[in-house]
Every structure is written in structure tokens, then in C-alpha cells.
User: Fold Probable membrane transporter protein from Pseudooceanicola albus.
Amino acid sequence: MFLIFVVILALTGAFAGVVSGLLGVGGGIFLVPVFLVLFRAFGVSEEVVMQMCVGTSTATIIATSLRSVVTHNGKGAVDWGVLKSWGPAMGLGAVLGVLAATAMHSDTLMAIFGIVAALMGVYMLAGAPRGRLAPSLPGPAVYAPLSGFIGFVCAMMGIGGGTFGVPALSAFGLPVQRAIATSAGFGAVISLPACVTYLLGSTGNAQTLPLTVGYVNLPTFALISLMTCLTVPFGVRLAHVLPAVRLRLIFAFFIILAALNMLRKAFF
Assistant:
């Protein structure tokens, strides 16, 4: 049973790394549903299982996003000005998102994850809307609350900043490759403060996995981080040489199925 657990985690981490580098959406959208199945199978208490899933997923995003940023920056695609201006509110939103997640019942968090994941899948199926909201990036009155919202939702769900960052930056005129590269940086900005907050959280007397600190299981974090770091560069290379339409559609169907399964578990 333990060997199966390790093999599934390793394969999931490898897949999440490719997806993160290729589409800039962050691997958390795939990791959390897998974590939920595995953590439940190993007896994690229902009242904290979803929080452990998103907390551990958030921790893995640190390594994935940093590796992705370094690789994208090697191609000159990261907009550091956007990262510096959007980062502070995004980091604050991330901390607030963790506090909200740990205050919720696990089923409520599961339902929120399912709804947002389903919407993301539909968005990916439909493709990015044509046209732009504005010819250039917005000023502080717009990007401060927008980046704070992105940080809040992503930290609460344990997903990378690219999930919302890529569509937002693209809508304001940033070329898609540059939006993907910069959103990889969003993942680091969100996951670092969010991970610290999850680590400082308390599960009380709830049953968790061995070597769990706060809401983060350290062995799972280590294995997933290792695998994603190995495969992110492959996804980045694909992002710069392949039209990702067909792959995006495949991933969208997968996300929708995972979201529907999450909603089923939350409500039935």
C-alpha cells in the first residue's frame, strides 16, 4: 500500500510539473484531487483532510514556481515590473486566503474547490476570449484589488497563480508567453507566505499523516517538489515550441471530471 502511495505521488508530481511549465496554470489543480483520495485512504480525519490537501499542495508550488520562473527567465519572458507591483497585495491576499480555508469546514472548502475548478475547466475548453479589456496593464486602483483576489483564491485552493494570472494579464494586453512566464512568479509570491501560514496552523486532535506540520505533510511535499522540479523545464520547452490547444482541451476535460467528483464528495 505504501509503495503504491509513493508511485502515485511520483507520477502525479511529474505530470503536474509538465502542466505547470506548459500552461502556467500550476499543478495544484491536479494535485489536490489526488491528495484527497490518498489522504483519505490513509485515515486523515474528515474535518482537516481538505485543508491538508491544499496546504501540502501550496507548499509544493514553491519549488515548482521558482523552477519555472528561472527557466522562463532564461528565455527573457518574465515581466519583473509586473511581479514587483502586483506582488504585495497578492501576498497579503494569500495569507487571508489561508486563514479563510482553515476556518472552513472541509466539505465547504471541497465545494469551493470543485466550483472554481469546474469554471476553470470550462474556461480552458472555451479558450481565451478574443479582444482585450484594455490596451495596457492597469494602474494600482485596479491591479491592487485584482492581485489580492488572485492571491486569496489561489492560496485557499492550493493552486498556482497562473490559474487566474494568465487570463488576467492576457486580458490587459500582455502576450500569452509573457503572461505564462510572469504568472509562474505569481505562484512563488502566493505560495511562500501561504505555506508559512499553513505550517503555523493547528489541526488539533485530528488524525493526520506522520511528519505533518500544521496542514503540510512533509514527505508528500518533498516527493512532489522533486518530481515537479525535474519535469517543469520539459513543460516550459513545450510551451515555447508547441501550439497547446489540443493539450489544453485534454487538460480541461480532466479538470472538469475532477471538479465534478469533488462536488459529488462535498454534497453527497
Notes: The chain has one domain: 2-267. The chain has a mean pLDDT of 87. Residues 2-267 form one domain.
